[in-house]
Specification:
It is built from 17 helices and 14 strands. With 450 residues, the chain is α/β, with parallel strands linked by helices. The chain has 2 domains: 140 residues, Rossmann fold; 299 residues, no CATH class. A 5-stranded parallel beta sheet has the order 2-3-4-1-5, sandwiched between helices. α3 runs antiparallel to α4. It is globular, with a radius of gyration of 23 Å.
Length: 450
């Protein structure tokens, strides 16, 4: 399936010419190995894929014993895989490199040698055990890979025309009109349900069967649980507790993650590492409170107040509606028709978090619970910085609404209080594009353009 990261790989090959090693990092089953191997097949005369999930001691020993003689190293590597290597026209893939950190540290010498190109792929790249006692090579260029975005999903189901149309209407700030908007929202809800994990998208594209797609997603959730049990070490019980609690936490009024639901008198410092583990594994997208909507949102963040979103909304749907282990076709139909008797706000907000993350935004929200002054008491779902920073008006407040009727009290108070600091205010909702009283109302499917 077509992925946008392929263009990033092409640009790296052309511009770096072997001077760096690309590190593709992302959650398990996000498609890292597949896209890198497709790139190798299409763009090089030959390639070798070293999968450290099942590599032999013979290959591991090369990285332990032969790096001081790279001529011998490459001769043995070619012999082991029975694949010829061509200078400046072969790629060596170090797949799941976090499982063998010594190979990662060897990148420094392999890149300096200059004969071949190197790409690493991995999950849990920064977890403490995976970087222990190794020197992270400066020649490594990290690139995050996320679940398939809305446009990639549309490509996969055979629709190449809707996304460019949506983009053109966004750029013109014009509504699509009733018929086109309804079609775009139907496709968006399919994406909301299926998510962006390539195996699930492929299953849906081939069968249009939500139940069969759900089984694929549940296998991925099981894989994540297995990773937590095997890789989270002393924190595994806390990591698993947070993972299980995410749907419940996203259903509370403000979506804040309340540690008290996990353990009485729980303190943030006791759960900081488990929260980091899930974020580092790219299973979740953490969104932190910032106390001032100014450039440098991170400088004003309060890490003790956060929202914890699933990295893939399709997985959240399967994770949340699991009473019978499989989400029933009836629930999927209600989601598709927007008739589910449940809080759709958490699902829509999770999807917006996923889309903003894939677009390169760090996730921040604003919350002020001033009990004495009502004019200060407000909450904004997301704050994003505009792409070109100027002296003033750099931060856009973003509110997410799942229904047709909603209030905007917090948004209006926020706009009044921080007028000098704010750029465009956005409300993402199920309706068509509209502008009113200084707020741009965008359909949810236009989120990637922010």
């Amino acid at each position: 399936m077509k992925r946008k990261i392929y263009d990033r790989l092409l640009r790296w090959k052309k511009e770096d010419s072997g001077k760096s090693c690309l590190l593709i990092q992302g959650a398990r089953r996000v498609g890292k190995s597949y896209i890198v191997e497709e790139f190798a097949k299409n763009e090089y005369k030959s390639y070798i894929l070293i999968d450290f999930n099942r590599t032999s001691p013979e290959i591991s020993n090369l990285f332990l014993n032969d790096l001081d003689d790279l001529d011998t190293f490459f001769l043995k590597l070619k012999a082991a895989y029975n694949i010829p290597l061509y200078e400046r026209d072969s790629l060596i893939i170090l797949d799941e490199v976090q499982l063998f950190p010594r190979a990662r540290s060897a990148v420094k010498y392999l890149v300096a040698d200059g004969r071949y190109d190197f790409i690493e792929t991995g999950s849990l790249i920064s977890i403490r055990n995976n970087v222990k006692n190794i020197l992270i090579p400066s020649e490594e260029e990290p690139v995050n890979m996320y679940p398939m975005d809305f446009e990639e999903f549309l490509w996969a189901i055979g629709n190449d025309t809707m996304y460019p149309l949506i983009r053109s209407f966004f750029e013109k700030k014009r509504p699509l009109g009733q018929a086109l908007h309804r079609k775009a929202m139907d496709l968006f809800r399919q994406y909301l349900i299926v998510g962006g994990m390539p195996q699930a998208v492929k299953q849906f594209a081939n069968t249009k069967d939500f139940s069969a797609t759900d089984r694929v997603k549940r296998r991925i959730l099981t894989l994540y649980r297995d990773d937590i049990q095997k890789r989270a070490d002393k924190d595994r019980l806390k990591v698993e507790a947070i993972f299980d609690e995410i749907p419940n936490q996203l259903q509370n009024q403000n979506r804040h993650f309340k540690l008290s639901s996990l353990e009485n008198d729980a303190r943030f410092k006791e759960y900081d590492e488990p929260l980091f583990w899930l974020s580092d594994a790219m299973i979740v997208n953490n969104c932190y409170n910032t106390t001032d909507p100014a450039i440098g949102l991170k400088l004003n963040q309060d890490r003790r107040l956060l929202k914890c979103y699933m990295g893939d909304t399709g997985l959240l749907v399967s994770h949340a509606f699991d009473e019978n282990s499989i989400v029933s076709e009836e629930i999927y139909k209600k989601l598709l028709l927007d008739k589910l008797e449940a809080d759709m706000g958490m699902i829509m907000e999770n999807m917006v978090a996923q889309m903003l993350t894939a677009s390169g935004h760090k996730l921040y929200f604003y919350a002020n619970n001033d009990r004495e002054h009502n004019e200060n008491r407000m909450e904004i779902d997301f704050l994003i910085a505009k792409k070109v920073i100027t002296n003033r008006h750099n931060i856009s407040p973003v509110e997410v609404k799942s229904g047709k009727r909603y209030a905007l009290a917090s948004m209006r108070k926020f706009m009044a209080k921080y007028a000098e600091q704010l750029h465009t205010a956005y409300v993402l909702h199920p309706g068509d594009l509209n502008e009113e009283n200084g707020i741009i109302f965008l359909p949810l499917y236009m989120t990637p353009f922010l």
